[in-house]
Design goal:
DUF6950, 6-stranded antiparallel sheet, 139 residues, alpha+beta, endopeptidase fold (from Nostoc punctiforme), globular
């Protein structure tokens, strides 16, 4: 069972820092690999190793979810983590908003995306989450 390490907050901050300006890339730096990397940083365990290096396009991502996951991203997350009500998500939990997977940072969701011409990590304020789903990363 994945449990956060005692210094998980420092580990998460260290993971996020070099990614702030890294552009989206299917299979390398997309919402799934980003969230899995955050969990690995916090727990020392990669929850999605079967997906690494398996796709490089949107179609490939969907195929990988069918082949290695539970058919789609929410179902795959349900199989790997405890589902929680999104309003109860805490720092370090995984949240999906509008189909985009990211890491709850308390008042906002950190996710891979773009704001204007800047690509990298974006903040989605909690009040702007759309049809959110959430999963607990254990303590």
């Amino acid at each position: 069972m994945m449990q956060r390490l005692p210094d998980w907050e420092t580990r998460l901050a260290d993971y996020l820092e070099p990614l702030r300006l890294r552009p989206f890339a299917w299979g390398d730096h997309d919402c799934c690999t980003f969230a899995a990397g955050a969990v690995a940083a916090m727990t020392g365990i990669d929850p999605m190793p079967e997906f690494r290096g398996r796709y490089s396009t949107a179609i490939g991502s969907a195929r990988a979810l069918r082949r290695f996951g539970a058919g789609d991203l929410p179902s795959t997350m349900d199989a790997k983590f405890e589902t929680i009500p999104a309003p109860l998500a805490q720092r370090g939990d995984i949240v999906m908003s509008s189909g985009l997977l990211g890491v709850c940072m308390g008042p906002y969701l950190a996710a891979v995306g773009s704001e204007g011409a800047r690509e990298g990590l974006i903040k989605i304020e909690r009040r702007a989450w759309v049809a959110p789903l959430a999963w607990r990363v254990g303590f």
